[in-house]
Amino acid sequence: MREGMPAEERVQHSGYDALGSGDREGTGGTGGPEPERELFLFGGGFGHFERLSEPFVAASGGASARIGLLFWDAAHIGPYFDRYARVWTGLGATVIPIAPDASGRFNAAALQRLRECTALFIPGGETRKYHEVYVKSDVRAVIEELYRAGKPYGGFSAGAMLVPGICITWGDLVTSESSGDSGHVFVGGSESGCNAPVTLDRGFGFLQGVIVETHFTSRIGFRRLAFALESSGVRLGLGIDDDVCVRISNERWMRVYGRGRCSILGWDPEKAVLQVRPIDPSGEPVDLPSLVKP
Q1: Which H helix or E strand runs over 230?
Q2: Which end of the chain, N or C, is more open, meaning fewer C-beta atoms within 10 Å of its C-beta?
Q3: pLDDT digits 0-9 by tens, 241-287
């Protein structure tokens, strides 16, 4: 890949304390009604998770919120449930653990609990396992139905990466003719250390024309996201740092909160040029489709 790397263009800049009234208005600066659909993409890290969770819990219903916390295996509920539930219950929400049964299926009671939730959240872990359980199964239709009906969707690391139409599900290696006997080059990314080829697959499709990478700076995700864009033909990548939440309203208006940044990668397949634009946290709405022009 030939990478033309123009000087970084800083889109927004402000301090951490951006979680004011603007993030709850959801108007995208247009004065219109509250957005019907909300995505909350957490890049990873729990250093500021409570603060970053405030808009998600508020959009989910505040004290009336019933957040479905979706695990790929019931055995993971005990070790990891409290990481998220402690924060959200402290903000007034009720948290409902949801997982498939031993056969990997969701029984009628689990599906009913899912449908009664006011918001859904897929936490961190192995992206490929969450992908298998929630994207490649029948329960996907229920999740899509709830999101389209206005129930917020939140994702932490793996859960955030499943949102686009095409997603990275696994891997930290890509094939290269110049890498010696191994034939592979390490490209890092959210699954750094798995020592497996990078794999792309169909995601939920809540965002089209975008690929998401999490833990972007801490796990050196730039090369993996760039590879995913080049190999898929998708033009826009979101590289989300730890301790950052990206809120996207109606698949258009994006706000960035936290103590890192969201890096926008724009891939032009005709010119084989990759543009990089960091967005610092300000909470101000940014028109996502306008960030990278063909």
Answers
A1: helix 222-232
A2: C
A3: 999 999 999 999 999 999 999 999 999 988 888 999 999 998 899 99
Residue type, 168: I
- For 72-137, give the DSSP string: SSGGGHHHHHHHHHHHHHHTT-EEEEE---TTS---HHHHHHHHT-SEEEE-SS-HHHHIIIIISS
Residue 292 lies in a domain: no
Kindly report whether the global pTM for this prediction surpasses the value 0.90: no
Number of domains the chain contains: 1
Q: Hey, is 255 helix, strand or coil?
A: strand
Are the beta carbons of 265 and 228 closer than 8 angstroms? Answer: no
What is the domain extent for residue 188?
22-28+35-282
| CB-CB contact of 167 with 212 (8 Å) | yes
**Residues in Cβ contact with 80 at an 8 Å cutoff, skipping those fewer than 6 apart:** 71, 123, 125
Find out whether 163 and 39 touch, Cβ atoms under 8 Å.
Answer: yes
Q: What's 225's domain CATH number?
A: 3.40.50.880
Does some domain include residue 168?
Answer: yes
Phi, psi of 194 (to 5 degrees): -80, -20
For 154: left if phi > 0, alpha if psi spans -120 to 50, otherwise beta; the answer is beta
Instruction: Judge contact between 237 and 211, C-beta under 8 A.
Output: yes
